[in-house]
Specification:
With 188 residues, the protein is an all-alpha fold. Helix content is 72%, strand content 0%.
């Protein structure tokens, strides 16, 4: 995103929040490429036979965002919401597949989450459950994991999106990884 676009996105979000629906039409082209990049990153870590494609994931997230009550406050909040919505879409999709297959029993580990690909719907559901538990304890840590693992954002990008320091991102990331690893090891 060019340097002037984050402030432009925030201004358009403010206009949208105030009821200007034309602002949303101007906002979409500014964030579409970034949303597709996030969706592509999400889908890269999915199993190889996944039927959703980046464009479909972006469009579904966009439709869910339109239906939401709250309007994002700024660019960082917008990206955080988009990451959460894409995660929810993939989890809903996995739940639907798991309900038809009932192929449980797989547990996910976070030893090397940066390079890890989710190999099954059961692993994605396990991670989702652990992230939901973490969000009850520390919502910021859960957001950081979500943005890094599902959104593929770097620590500086997360720091900017959440308006926190890079050191805070690194510290929360390390703590969250340890907590998630412990939680998921217990349920194994």
């Amino acid at each position: 995103m060019p340097d002037d676009q984050p402030s432009q996105v925030t201004q358009l979000l403010e206009r949208w929040r105030q009821g200007d629906h034309d602002a949303l039409q101007k906002l979409v082209p500014l964030v579409y490429d970034e949303l597709r990049r996030l969706a592509h990153y999400y889908l890269q870590s999915e199993r190889s036979d996944h039927t959703l494609q980046s464009t479909a994931l972006v469009h579904e997230a966009y439709l869910r965002m339109l239906g939401a009550q709250a309007v994002p406050q700024n660019r960082g909040h917008f990206i955080a919401i988009a990451c959460r919505l894409m995660r929810q879409i993939l989890v809903d999709y996995a739940r639907g597949r798991a309900a038809s297959k009932r192929d449980g029993g797989y547990k996910i580990t976070l030893d090397d989450v940066d390079a890890m690909a989710v190999r099954s719907d059961a692993e994605l559901l396990s991670l989702d459950q652990a992230l939901n538990e973490l969000s009850q304890i520390d919502e910021r840590q859960a957001k950081i994991v979500e943005m890094k693992f599902f959104g593929g954002l770097s620590a500086p990008e997360i720091a900017e999106a959440l308006d926190i320091s890079r050191a805070t991102v690194d510290r929360d990331w390390a703590t969250a990884r340890i907590w998630l690893h412990r939680q998921m090891s217990r349920s194994a």
